Amino acid sequence: MWESLKGFIKPGSEDERLVGEIDMARLPRHVAIIMDGNGRWAARRGLPRIQGHKAGSESVRETAETCARLGISYLTLYAFSKENWKRPRQEVVRLWRLLRDSLRTDGRLFMENNLRLRAIGQRPGIPRLVLKELERLEKATERNTRMTLILALNYGGRAEILEAVNRILRSRTVRARDLDEELFSGFLYTGGIPDPDLLIRTSGERRVSNFLLWQIAYTELWITPVLWPDFRRKDLFEAVIDYQKRDRRFGDVQSRPENQG
C-alpha cells in the first residue's frame, strides 16, 4: 500500500504524517462525497459560479487518485442532483458541458490507472452528448478493477427508492413474503455495490440533501467547513483517520470487527 503512495506524498510533509496515522487494514471500502461549496468559493473571489465548478474538477481528480492509491474500492461523488435543474439555465448548461469535456479528456487516466467508471441516477434527462461520453467511458472501463468511481448524475434518493419499488412491481417475480432489505437493495441504482462506510460533506452544511437515502442508514458522517474546490488529500486523510476512531456497532451493543473497514 505504501508503495502506491511513493512519489505522491512528499517526505516530511503534513500529508506523510497523516498517512502514518491511518490503519491500512481498516480503510473504508466505500467513500461517498457531497461536493458542496463551488459557488461560495467563486463568490468569495468575485468570480462567476462556473469558475468554482472548474476549480472543483481539480478536487475530483486529486480525491479520486488519492482514494485509488490508498486502496479504497469505491468512491461515489454527488455530481448533479435532480434539484440542480432549478439553477439558472446558463449555469446548468455549463455544468453539463464541463462534465462532458472532463469525460473526454480524463478517459486516458481511467485506463492508465485501472479505474472503472459507473453512473447512477435517471439517465433520461441527461443531455445526449454527455450521456454518449458517459456510456462510452463506462463501456471502455468495465473490466478495470483498481477502484470504481461512481458519479451520481440527475440523481435523487427518493426518486431512486420509488424507481426500485416500480421495478419490483413490474418484474412480477418478487413475492411480497420474499421481499427483504437485501433483495430490495438489488433493485436500487447501486445494486451490487456495498453501502458507503464514510460520507463526507464539504462546506459545513449539515444535511444529506436527498443523497443515497437508503444506503447511508449506518454510514459514518464527516462534515468539514472546507469548500469543495479547496478539498485536498490532506482533508481526505483527516476524514479517514476520524472514521477509524468510530465505534461502528450497526445497532448492536458492541462493535463487530468484521464490519469495520
For the record, the CATH class is Alpha Beta
Number of strands: 6
CATH homologous superfamily descriptor: Decaprenyl diphosphate synthase-like
- The third-level CATH topology is Undecaprenyl pyrophosphate synthetase
Report the mean per-residue pLDDT as an integer: 93
Instruction: Tell me the domain tally.
Output: 1
| Largest sheet: number of strands, sense, barrel closure | 6 strands, parallel
Low-confidence stretches: none
Structural class based on helices, strands and sheet pairing: alpha/beta
State the helicity in percent bands.
Answer: 40-55%
N-to-C order of helices and strands: HEHHEHEHEHHEEH
* Shape call: globular
Spatial extent as radius of gyration: 19 Å
CATH architecture: 3-Layer(aba) Sandwich
Strand content: 5-15%
User: Spatial order of the strands in the main sheet?
Assistant: 3-4-2-1-5-6
Terminal residue distance: 15 Å
Description of the structure:
The protein is of the alpha/beta class. It has a single domain (27-246), classed as Undecaprenyl pyrophosphate synthetase. Helices cover 41% and strands 14% of the residues. The protein is built from eight helices and six strands; from the N terminus they run αβααβαβαβααββα. It has helices at residues 14-20, 38-44, 49-70, 89-112, 128-141, 157-171, 181-185, 233-244; strands at 30-34, 74-81, 115-120, 147-155, 198-201, 220-223. α5 (128-141) links the parallel β3 (115-120) and β4 (147-155). The protein is globular. The two termini are 15 Å apart. The relative contact order is 0.18. The model has no long low-confidence stretch (mean pLDDT 93).
